[in-house]
Amino acid sequence: SEGKIFVKDKEENLLEFEFYRFIKKSKNESLANRMVQDRLKRTENYMELMKNFQISFDELQEADEHPKRLGQKNS
Q: pTM above 0.85?
């Protein structure tokens, strides 16, 4: 059993893997997980930026008395 590892699945079945393939698969899953986490973090940062932009825009719109500026309709 040189170069092989054995693990049990949820149903207690014994599974045999070649060590290098098991490590390669683990690294790929770890990399994929880090990439997903990075993408999620960028999305959260973008959403925070858009939220802050909307708050600033709303504040400007409330402070601006001119009817044709910042998307206000003519009265």
A: no
